[in-house]
Design a protein that fits this description.
The protein is an alpha+beta fold. 29% of the residues lie in helices and 24% in strands. Strands 1-2-3-4-5-7-6 form a seven-stranded mixed sheet.
Length: 199
């Protein structure tokens, strides 16, 4: 990359979703991408109202959101039950204060990017930006945090693997079409993606 070229992530703004209108717009993008595999809007709204800093959007300057990611603080019980396939995504209990200062559990509910932005660095910038936000403001008040996700596409599985997530429970062990991926971080962890220094 040339020195005077803009860095990829500098083109985007990543921030917590602040309005119900933006949440609804993102939900429509998500629903078109995942259909019946998506949670209902009522559940998403309840999660967002319980933990406003659990949902982030990405946009270019002055534009409407072009994508989003949910990374929700959840109870340990919900995390474990979801990992084992005992509950579905809609049964997850989102709680801003989980009552444990030593460990936190986060559920990565999915990353969605509008079709016209899917061949851009947007997904990389969103994922890294959100994790960096959590490192600075939220979960790194704890000594260790556990992040889990249910990838429902091969592309999602590859994206998580790129950032160090490992399949911790296979699909057939969850009695589900989809596996459970997990990664742990300590309070002194480095940036999410150690290899990409372009942004």
């Amino acid at each position: 990359m040339q020195k005077d070229e803009p860095r990829p992530c500098s083109r985007y703004t990543i921030s917590p979703t602040e309005t119900l209108a933006d949440l609804a717009r993102i939900y429509e993008i998500d629903r078109e991408a995942y259909g019946d595999d998506n949670v209902s809007f009522a559940v998403l709204r309840d999660w967002w109202q319980s933990a406003p800093h659990g949902h982030f959007n990405i946009r270019k300057s002055g534009s409407a959101p072009i994508g989003a990611l949910g990374i929700w603080p959840v109870t340990r019980e919900s995390f474990d039950l979801l990992a084992r396939g005992r509950i579905t995504e809609e049964g997850v209990v989102v709680a801003e204060d989980c009552g444990d200062t030593e460990e936190r559990w986060l559920y990565l509910s999915g990353i969605v990017i509008a079709p016209h932005a899917r061949k851009t660095p947007a997904s990389f910038c969103l994922l890294r930006g959100v994790f960096d936000y959590w490192r600075r403001h939220q979960a790194f008040q704890a000594m260790r945090w556990h992040v889990g996700a249910v990838p429902i596409t091969r592309a999602g599985e590859r994206l998580l693997a790129r950032y160090g997530f490992a399949l911790s429970v296979l699909a057939h062990d969850r009695n589900s079409p989809y596996p459970f991926s997990q990664r742990e971080f300590g309070a002194s962890s480095e940036s999410l993606d150690k290899e990409d220094k372009r942004s």
